[in-house]
Amino acid sequence: MRLTEFWARLGEVFGAAYARSIAADHSFGELGNRTINQAIADGIETATIWRAVVAAYPDRVPSRLR
Predict the structure, then answer these.
(1) How far, in Å, CA of 29 to CA of 35, rounded?
(2) CA dihedral sign, ordered 47, 42, 55, 9
(3) Using one digit for the tens of pLDDT, what is the confidence trace for 2-55?
(4) What is the reported pTM?
(5) H/E element holding 8?
(6) Which contacts (CB < 8 Å, 24+ apart) does range 54-59 have?
(7) At a CB cut-off of 8 Å and minimum separation 6, what does 19 contact?
């Protein structure tokens, strides 16, 4: 998944402002307790990051974006 697609999906699910907040403030256990921003900076693939988002927010992410 390209980084632009990742950000588009995150924005679609959470809205632009809240998506940026989650990316900066929420630590995901599946990413080694990194935030999204830290995981991207550390070179973790966006598909892996997206799977962590889906796992953390299963009720928010529509099935077509899983």
Answers:
(1) 9
(2) negative
(3) 999 999 999 999 999 999 999 999 999 999 999 999 999 999 999 999 999 999
(4) 0.94
(5) helix 3-14
(6) 55/30, 56/26, 56/28, 56/30, 57/13
(7) 7, 10, 11, 13
Tokens of 4: 């632009």
Single-letter amino acid, residue 50: W
Structure tokens at 19: 């998506």
pLDDT at res. 30: 97
Q: Nearest Cα to 3, choosing from 35, 33, 48, 34?
A: 48
DSSP 8-state secondary structure symbol assigned to residue 57: -
Q: Which two tokens stand for residue 21?
A: 């907040």
- 3 state DSSP class of 1: coil
Neighbours of 19 (CB within 10 A): 19
